Each structure stands twice: as C-alpha cells, then as structure tokens.
Amino acid sequence: MDQEYIHEAISMSIGDNEDEKGSETKRTNWLARQLSKQFNLPDHPVVQFITYVLIGFLIWTLLFLLLHDEVLLNGGLFNLLSLFVLAFAVGFAVSFAKLPPLLGMLITGIVLRAIGFFHVSGIYVQVVIVLRNIALTVILIKAGLGLDAPALMKLKFTVLKLGIFPCAGEAVATGILSYYFLGFPWLWAFLLGFLLSPISPAVVVPTLLNLKERGYGNDKGISTLVIAASSLDDIFSISIFGLLLSSIFSIGSLTMALIRGPLELLTGLVFGVVWGFVCSGFPHRDDDCLVLKRSLLIGLGGVVFILGSTYLNYPGAGPLACITAAFVTNISWQMQGWGFDKPNPVAQVYSQLWVMVQPVLFGLIGAEIDVNTLQLTQVINSIAIVIAALADCRMLSFSDRRIAQLERDAIC
C-alpha cells in the first residue's frame, strides 16, 4: 500500500513538472514570436516618431550627465535642443497635411523667437553657425550624388541660361520696385535685389530629389538641371552683391570685386574636382568599412569647404566645391560598381542624415526672424515686391523655349 502511494506521488510530481515545463515552453515560444514580429508594431510614421523621441531622450540624458546645468531650463544647450525637437515634431505633424515639413520647422523657429523662448549668446552663436553649415553640407552632398552626368552635359547651355537670366531679372525687378515703393537709393535697392534673388539649395534640393525618386522628369534631367543652375545662380548673385557692397562702402578694390565671381567659380570647381578624385581612390573598394569611410571623407570635406570658403571670404566657392566633389565621386563610384545594378549606399546614408539635420537647419533659419521688429506696412509692401519679382523671374524662365518645354514635360 505504501509503495503504491509513493509511486502515485512520484507520478503526480513528474506530471506537475511536465506541466510546468510545458507552460514555460509556451510562454517562451509566445515571447519569441512577439519578438520576431516586433510585437506586431506596424511600419507607421508614429513608430518612427517614437524611435526619434527615444533617441532624443537618450542624447539629452547623456548631455545632462556630461554638462549638467547647460541642458536644464534656461541653459543655452537646452534652448537649442528644444528648438530642434519642436521643429522636428511640428514638421512631422505638418507632413500629414501634405505640406513640406520645412514649413512647420520654419514656423516653429519664428514662433519660439517671437515669444522670447529661443535666444543664443556666447559660444552658442558660433555653434549655431557651424550646425547650419553642417546641415547645408548634408543636403548639398545629397544633391551632388543625385546629379545625372549625361543629362548635365546635354543641358549645359540651358543650365547657364537658367542660372543667370531669371536671377538677374528678379534682382532688377526687386531693385526697381524697392526704389519706388520702399524709398531705397538705387544701389541699396539693387543690393536688396541680389540679396533676395539667389535660390536656396536647402529648400529646392529636397523637393527636387523627392520628385526624382517618384519618377518625375527623370528622362529629361529636370532635377539635374535645376540643382546645377541653383549653384550657378548663387555664385552669380553673391558676386554682384559683393560688387554693389564694395561700391556702397568702398570695401576693397573694384577690380577685385569684378573678378570675385569667376574666381569663386574656378576655385569651387577645382577644389571640388580634386577632392572628388581623392574620395574616388580612398579608401580601397574592398575595405571592410567602405561605406562609413566614404561617407566620412565626402562629408567632412564638404564641411571644410563651406566653413573654409566663408573664413576666406569666398562664400560662393564652398557650396559649389561640395556639390562638385560629390558629383565627381559619384561618377567614379558608378565606374567601380555602385549606382547601376545596386543603389549607392553613401547616398542612402545622407538621405537618412537629412531627416535628422533638416529641423536643425530650418529651425535655426526661422529663429533668425524677429517679427517684433517688423511693421505691418513694410511687411505688406515687401511681400508685394517679392511676388512681383518672382513673377518677372518666372516670365524670364518661360521666355526660353527649351526651359519652358522641360518644365511642361516635368509637370506632365
């Protein structure tokens, strides 16, 4: 009897252990299934947003552990981080309304400056300048990697016309209207015109690359045409602006002001081509960290070009060198196997980087605008002048039959 009782107790104990093991196995299998499916989270923008929030929180925590009070309320670094986070959040929200995220980011910067929340001083003034230039470098490299060499050679004369004539027409129209409606002297009026006329690559390039990815105008080389023309447009505007500035304040010699434009163009092209060849040879294409090293070389070189050209007082050369280096490098990488059968991984790196630095650039640009110093009458007159000047620029663009046909093809 005792033996039967002991045998039954052992059997029950073994059964209980097997049930516990079975339950534990089921729990383990359930957890494994959930982990393998990422807890059934969808590929949704909200999930991406939460990811960025987590990254931002970890960055803030790390900075707090290193810098303490600077990342707390009223700290200089806290102001910067708040601007970037809010600009990203508002830009993310605006994108759901099918509007460009940069619009929300600009408005965020303007509002934070207007209510007195955002202000920088001391070393952070220089930090802001460097951050803006780094963000600009990212989008310029992204643009250079997206240029189509055959299309650029085919449209070289169209690039020249599109880069100069509409810009000059807009500047002249702005100058004339500013003289009559704002009461500016002639030189100051045209100075304002060439200050407003340059195209901003940070605004134009993301939109063009987005259209290119969706297949619009690829066969006609529309994105390549406009990106290349925008670089020439900037150099032309900066050169005439410098010439007018020298005439007004008698800064330097007039001869130097006249040759500044061609000199910036030549300098930007030479440095860009040379650095493009350097990045084509280094690192070796069989390097284990090829993508990382190539991304760093082209990126750090671009930052040096932009900061260095500003330091040497040749601001137009830096962006051109940046785009040219990326363009030359991309052609070389295509010859080495990237870009034809498989995508360029460096271009993908900079596409992801742009998502992170976009709120930095446009948030800081918005924060430069102090609406408290503006008068309503001046704002209305200025908006009217800008609209009229843009209309003149548009008419000059369409006056060239080839450009007009390319624009119609892109729309269709």
Automatic annotation (TrEMBL):
GO terms for cellular component: membrane. This is Cation/H+ exchanger transmembrane domain-containing protein. One of its GO terms (molecular function) is antiporter activity. Pfam families: Na_H_Exchanger (PF00999). It comes from Cimex lectularius (Bed bug). Keywords: Membrane, Transmembrane, Transmembrane helix. PANTHER family: CATION_H+ EXCHANGER DOMAIN-CONTAINING PROTEIN, PTHR31102. It is found in: Membrane. The chain crosses the membrane at residues 46-66, 78-97, 117-141, 162-182, 188-211, 232-259, 265-283, 295-312. It is a multi-pass membrane protein. GO terms for biological process: proton transmembrane transport. Residues 86-395 form the Cation/H+ exchanger transmembrane domain.
